[in-house]
Amino acid sequence: MTVVAFEGPAGAGKTYRLMESLSEALRERPLVDHERVMALTFMHGSRRRLDARLRDVDDLSGRFAAMTLDSFAWRVTQRWQRLARHLGHQMPGENEYERTCRLAAVLLERDDVRRWVTLTYPYILVDEAQDLSAERSAMIAALAQSGTILLAYDEFQCLNTALLPIAIEGWIREHCEPVILEGCRRTEDAELIEAAIAVREGRAVNPDGQRFKVVATPGHVNYRATFVANAIAWRNGGSVAVLTPSRQGGFADDAVRRVGEGPVGQRQNGPYRIRWESSDAQDGDALWDNLGIAGRCTADEALAAMAAHRRKPAVRTLRDWVKRQRSTQGVEQFSGDDLRRQLGQALSVRRRYGQRADAEFTAMTIQQAKNREFDHVIVLWPYNVPNDDEQKRRLLYNAITRAKRSCRVLVQSEDMLSAPPFSP
Q1: Rounded to an integer, what distance in angstroms lies between the CA atom of residue 388 and that of residue 76?
Q2: pLDDT score of 356 more than 60
């Protein structure tokens, strides 16, 4: 068993060190003809980043596979489903991710299953390991018995309170001494670095810097919209992300809407069209409503409903699925639930594996911004952030560390500045 782990704050170079360690390992023990490197992570944004980084590793020449733990678990359970049934396990459904990972972890404890993986993938990279649930962490623990694991994590960047304390940390410390990384490679701006460190350590932030500011914007929406429009107008180029820990209550949405409607404030900056990134569920609900399919329908009725929306890639995928079900299995009746589920899967696959076309000005939740970087970040911080001081610090820290050049935080009231995450 060989386990190498890197621990450090956002921007400390954990992924860089993973690639550096992989290069060193490949020089000492190169891949043979049938071998490849496997890179695993929980979120697709991290998977895309790993894919890009691995393309630059010397002597790898594309001989790698970057995938999510859920995708890998599905492959394991499908390949060994006869063994799973023989052992008395029921096969999980396609969207039962936790059950799939739990079963995969059980299967990977068996020598024959584990060898099936490590004979092809002797080196396994795991990035953003703080996001792994107990089931997914158990998969890594099983794989480590037969392969080389190179792993990176930062407990403070876990935003899912249900995962705390993170499952994999205890296992890591039992099997290796993590390499502690410090510093920040993402930005050289001292104000951004100091603000992130202060939030992480629970200290008061300096609210009145040049590149990092915290401003109370109570009252009319025009007030905070002016700050947003001015930050965009005076940014001196570069991408802009408007981030918020919560869209409830309209504090963030109203400001984004107002900035897009027309000039605002004394300087009359704007309008700027800021695009909200939607989730698979939101896109699916809107598209499903447009299709107008309710209850059961025939194949012809489903295809007719999709005809007006056939230019949308997800609808084309759904249409092809209906045609395939009819031609290969003779299915003529479909339930609305089945069609809605297939539409959701089509949207998910397209979002996860397609190329993201980043808008110049975009808005999203802090959770959606994980594993991404922007030149400028504007944080809209409303009243209704979860009443947990530690979680507030984690959220603000993850927002600040997305920025490379500047960060503005607009809070809903003055009294919030004297409470966490802005003050102890």
Answers
A1: 38
A2: no
